[in-house]
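Class, look over these structure tokens:
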Amino acid sequence: MSKKNKGKKVADPNETSKLLAAKISQLEQDAAGEKDQEAEIEREVKKATRDLNQLLSNIESPMTRLETVHKKYTELLADMKKLDRDYSKSKKRADQLQKDQDKGKSELNKTVTMKDKLEKLCRELTKENKKVKDENKKLEETEKKARLIVNERLDSLLYDIQDVMAAKGNPRSEKADIDLDEALRAKIKTIGEKFEMRELHYKALLRSKDAEIQCLTAKYEEQRRTAENEAARCRALSSQVSTFSHTEAELRSQLNIYVEKFKQVWTDVDGLLGLSLVLTAGNNNIAGGGYAEQQQRAFSYVSQRNGRDVQKDQTAREGKPHPYTEARSNEPQHTRDGGGAHKES
């Protein structure tokens, strides 16, 4: 148990350090991407403002300006709706990829756990195989020693038989020789039977050990193939998780771009609506000789609106009513329809 706990304690810090390094790298990439996106958005806002000012400066008629602003507002509103739909689709896809990534990580963890178990089993089988080989070697040495002992005893018996045969020429000891021959015959037979029994025992033991070695070898090969398959699956899952992470990063980057464009659209729509109000009021006061003054006020209002921060856009994205939209909805009907009335007259 202590060895297992020690192994786990060593593995956890390495895994934690890898995860922290990956997270830090991802945060650095996200920060660099956000800076590039902010610079790109700032350039687009400046370009859009410059184009709008240039477009309005080339138009002299207030009604034509109002129609141009209304057309620009319609285009921006359509772009905003399209960006909103793209944002929703990208968010759903990012959520689905996050779920797939979590599932892939879970499968990867299970595979790693299974791989560790299989490696442990392979190590145990290797130790058992080595143990069986050592026992087999000891049995062979024991059998060799037993053979030597039996050979020595047989040699001793042969010498005794030769001595008896040499002394057999004496007639007085004939009966004693017969008794000795019978005793030697019985002794040799007993030794032969014991030797055969021992030989059969060693052969049976060797067959049993050979069968055990073959069984362990087959189990080892099967576990090794299973471990190789699990390792290949682990590599495939790691590649899949890496692909999911890369796709998620790309989708999040696109999602951030859509959000910033969404903010920009709200800023442009807000500025165009304010410009529409100012131009409508200026159109009502043309008869009083204040056309130049109203035109100057309109351009000043557009510049001020384009210079504001994106706090109002965040309020609109959270579902809260924009201050200008709320004020616009509270205006009288004849004030909101002033541009149309002048156009009909």
Summary: Residues 174-284 form the longest helix (111 residues). Helices lie at 2-57, 62-166, 174-284, 291-306, 311-317, 323-329, 333-336, 338-344. Residues 1-11, 309-345 have pLDDT under 50 and may be disordered. The chain has one domain: 2-344.
